[in-house]
Amino acid sequence: MAIKTLKSILNQQFSYTINGKLWIECMGERFFGPGPVELLENINTTGSINKAAKEMNMSYKKAWAIINALNTNVAKPLVVMKSGGEKGGGSVITKEARQLITYHKKLRKRFIYFLEKETKKLNHLS
Amino acid sequence: MAIKTLKSILNQQFSYTINGKLWIECMGERFFGPGPVELLENINTTGSINKAAKEMNMSYKKAWAIINALNTNVAKPLVVMKSGGEKGGGSVITKEARQLITYHKKLRKRFIYFLEKETKKLNHLS
């Protein structure tokens, strides 16, 4: 088919967008995406897993489960407790967590570019 | 950061993949993706909305809701009844449905290429 024929299919009164989700899998299981990034960034800001979880309306238990899963799927921990543990000295994210967040931001930029390019293509074609 | 530092973050014993989902939105609402494509292709094969829905373990009601949503979001219907209606003559997908499916297949190929490229990049970097 000539792809230009989409013009006759889409309603010219409406706007169309290509949208999607992206994540990183480890051994076929989703383990890193916008959710963990938000949690790590909140731990970085608040210095506490508990406060970070509260900001996201997430239980402390769930936040810990996510952090455990993250730490299990990478070579070095992404979150560590400062001396005295969570109650004593709070928690911090590691250099590795920052690097993974930076990589993820760049990956997301490339994905958003892909979505925008496809949206332009679709609207140009239609 | 030098992106090559991911090498020290990811566990070299594990395999990492970039994965995701993609869909088309109309006026900000998801309306077309792998689900509707499967339904349309099943209608094309079986000649019946009822049989197509059954193959996907979907209720006739839900299949109709999807088809109505599809037909509302485009300029020309994607599914039409043959004379006598669903009970009499069955249903067929239109030329426009075929064109949208073809476009969607090409879009998915480009998305899968993006995912593969990013997965290679991640594993090369790490």
Structure in a nutshell:
The structure is a homodimer of 126-residue chains. By secondary structure, chain A is of the alpha+beta class.
Give structural notes:
The structure is a homodimer of 126-residue chains. With 126 residues, chain A is of the alpha+beta class. Chain A has one domain (28-125): Arc Repressor Mutant, subunit A. Helices cover 55% and strands 17% of the residues of chain A. The first copy, chain A, is built from five helices and four strands; from the N terminus they run ββαααβαβα. In chain A, the strands form two sheets. The first copy, chain A, has a two-stranded antiparallel ribbon. In chain A, a hairpin with a 2-residue loop joins strand 1 (16-26) and strand 2 (29-32). Chain A is elongated, with a radius of gyration of 20 Å. Chain A starts with 15 loop residues before the first strand and ends with a helix. The mean pLDDT of chain A is 91. At the A-B interface, strand 1 and helix 5 of A face strand 1 and helix 5 of B.
Structure characteristics:
5 helices, homodimer, two-stranded antiparallel ribbon, alpha+beta, 126 residues, two-stranded antiparallel sheet, Arc Repressor Mutant, subunit A
Largest sheet of chain A: 2 strands, antiparallel
Low-confidence stretches of chain A: none
Biggest protein-protein interface?
A: A-B, 43 and 43 residues
CATH third-tier fold name of chain A: Arc Repressor Mutant, subunit A
Counting DSSP H or I runs of 4 or more residues, the number of helices of chain A is 5
What structural class do you assign from the helix and strand content of chain A?
A: alpha+beta
Which oligomeric state applies? homodimer
Kindly give the count of domains of chain A: 1
Mean pLDDT of chain A comes to: 91
What fraction of residues of chain A sit in β-strands?
15-25%
Q: Helicity range of the residues of chain A? A: 40-55%
- Shape assignment of chain A: elongated
Name the CATH superfamily assignment of chain A. Winged helix-like DNA-binding domain superfamily/Winged helix DNA-binding domain
